[in-house]
Structure formats: C-alpha cells, structure tokens
Amino acid sequence: MKKITIAIDGFSSTGKSTLAKQLAKHLGYVYVDTGAMYRAVALFAMQNGYISPTGFDKESLINNLSFIKLDFKFNPDLGFAEMYLNDDNVETAIRTIEVSAFVSKVAEVSEVRAKLVEQQKEMGKNKAIVMDGRDIGTVVFPDAELKIFMTASAATRAQRRFDELQQKGDSVSYEEVLKNVEERDYIDTHRKDSPLVMADDSIEVDNSYLNREEQFEVVLDLVNEIIKE
Question: Cβ(15)–Cβ(207) under 8 Å?
Fold first, then answer.
C-alpha cells in the first residue's frame, strides 16, 4: 500500500495530537508530536532559570541547546510514544498551564526551531508518518501528500483545554486558560520565523462542532482518497 506523509497544523487545543494519534494507530504509521518537543525545550528553559514570568534569557537557552536530548519512547500500555527530556519522562510535566504559558515564546527562537525542524525532517524521511504542529505543512514537510489545517473558536478550544486540566486536577480558571489560548494564537501567528499559516494546498477542518469520531472519519476519508490514487 502507498505510504504517505500526513502533516497536521493548526491552532493550540484543536485536538491535533488526538487526531494524529488516531490516524497513526489506524494506519500503522509513526506519530510525532512536535508540540511536545517544543514544550520539552520550554520545560528545560524553566528548569534552568532561562525563562520565568519576569523575563526570558534567550541567549543562555541558545548557548545550551546542545545539552538538550529529546526522545520519543513508545509506551505499549498507552499505545503511543511519550516525550523524554534528557532520559527523563516528561510527558505529564510538559502538559501544565505553566509550560503552556512559555512554549510559544520558546518556539519563537530561530535557533530552537532550526534544531527541532532538522530532527523532524529526519524522522519523516521514510514517509508513513503523521506529524502535528504549527509549521509541518509549510516548513517541515512542504511536499506532504496530505496537509490538514485544524481550527476552532478560541472559546471552544479554551473550554476543551480547561476541562482537560480539570480532569488532571490542575487548579486553573477558564479565564486563565482562555487568556493563554489567545496569547499563544497571537504569538504563533505573528512570529517572524515560521509563523502559523495555512499552506495553500492544505485542507481546513473546523472541528468546533465535531466530536473526535466525526473528525477522524472526515480526515480518514481524505487519507484513503490519496492512498488509492
């Protein structure tokens, strides 16, 4: 069967990772969560005091990028790969509201993007991969056979993220989550290096009123059309 590259881009909290995991599992493809990679770098910056609510020492982060080792290790119990930072499982640690507050600022740094994009391109050289992020269809895999751009209203995305954090026991308010979503949207779409934009040949999927199963079926139909060509 024809193997393809599937690039999924879009705004934060649109369910990109959920969809990508579903597709990868169904197709037997490799799944790569690039957002987790940027979150891990943000966590590293936080742990080392390079970024905080009072400031961001970009030069120190840039000078220490060589000390960052990122790996995805498959967890058979979960059915997907988890993010490891310098051999430590940080899958839970990178999903906090604190990391969310800094990840877009870290992702703005050109040196960080260059380091991670290089790794991402290497991961996808043999195709049969589903990768989600902000610049997959425009920068990482501009020749991907299928490009999906996911969107939903900020209020809808904030509610989903708030519910998710509440289930994990995190003490946050909806207003705090909505502010974070809107701030990340602005940074992601206005940064100079690889801003979040929809590729010309991307297919937009607005999932404001779609559940996970409906969304999966819509995109799977698109995948099957391309594979059968």
Answer: yes
Q: Which two tokens stand for residue 189?
A: 């779409």
pLDDT single digits (tens) 109-150? 999 999 999 999 999 999 999 999 999 999 999 999 999 999
What distance in Å separates the CA atoms of residue 17 and residue 58, rounded to the nearest whole number? Answer: 28
Can you tell me the distance from the alpha carbon of 65 to that of 115, in angstroms, rounded to the nearest whole number? 8
Reported as a single tens digit per residue, the pLDDT across 41-86 is 999 999 999 999 999 999 999 999 999 999 988 888 887 789 999 9
**pTM (two decimals):** 0.83
The full DSSP string for 64-120 is TGGG--EEEEEETTTTEEEEEETTEE-TTGGGSHHHHHHHHHHHT-HHHHHHHHHHH
Write phi, then psi, for 218 (nearest 5 degrees).
-60, -50
Please state, as a whole number, how many other Cβ atoms lie within 10 Å of the Cβ of residue 94: 24
Q: Residue 141 and residue 39: Cα distance in Å, rounded?
A: 21
- CB 133, CB 31: distance < 8 Å: no
Phi, psi of 198 (to 5 degrees): -85, 125
